[in-house]
Please model this.
Amino acid sequence: MLQWTLAEIAEKIGATLNGDGNIEVTGLATLQSAGNSELSFLANPSYAKYLEHTNAAAVILQPALADQCSTNVLMMSNPYMGYALASQLFAPVLSTTSGISPAAHIAEDAVIESGCVIGPNAVVESGVHIGTGSVIGPGCYVGRNTKLGKDVQLRPNVTVYHGVNIGDRVLVHSGTVIGSDGFGFAPNQGDWVKIEQLGGVIIGDDVEIGAGTTIDRGALDDTVIEQGAKLDNQIQIAHNVRVGAYSVLAACVGISGSSVIGRHCMIGGGVGIAGHLEITDQVQITGMTLVTHHIKEPGVYSSGTAVEPNRSWRKNVARFRQLDQLARRVRELEKNR
Model:
């Protein structure tokens, strides 16, 4: 069991401790459910009502709320960041495997630097270079001439095709495919001729990629995920897309080919982005939005309608179909005034 004293936690997360630093903490929990050996946090003011009666060993919160808390406090200006850092202290070790499994299949010319872990049934092809301290989980496939940086983690059953370049400290969750062919076909008399995808994929340092996500290789140039970007589960990144540094994409986002997402963008769940578009930096797109044109100014963007009873929705759909006719009538009336 992982165990830390409050004094140790305060030092690790950069908080100011008000209370008994010798108290030992064994985990994290919400204000409502925390026991006397667990740490909690308050980031949303609407939960302040639980401070008085929480059983937590300590609470991470802003200094202004310390007097409202009935237990020890770890004070910092950004409690949510404190929670994030504290969670890392209690993260379970997912693998006890060390070294290279005899059941792994590794090409003779592959370069595996010191401290790497390669699990059973992993396949590492010719020309691969894996940096120091990287972990290749069971059942992973790393294609020829691919390069992985330092401290990369491929969770079990990740597939990385040929010619992919992954930076340092990248975490890729299970079932993800990096470097598969982009969707490219040329029409020919009712048939389709495959366009071979000759580019690669470049993934910057400190990127995290969720489970079941697909990142296609470029047609000619590379598909690029820049430094610090975070991708959720089941995202589709098409060929030649670029995702800017520190942008975050929620689950089930789909980005069509050759679109460019700026830096520090936030893309909500289920968003669809058409091809060959440019989205500038500092853009937030809310869930289920369909983006069909360039976004040139920072801000929050949305599309679609909220859920409503089916009968009402059907009536509104009928009215939507009449909008163009109504607009034409309004213009005629304005001309004739």
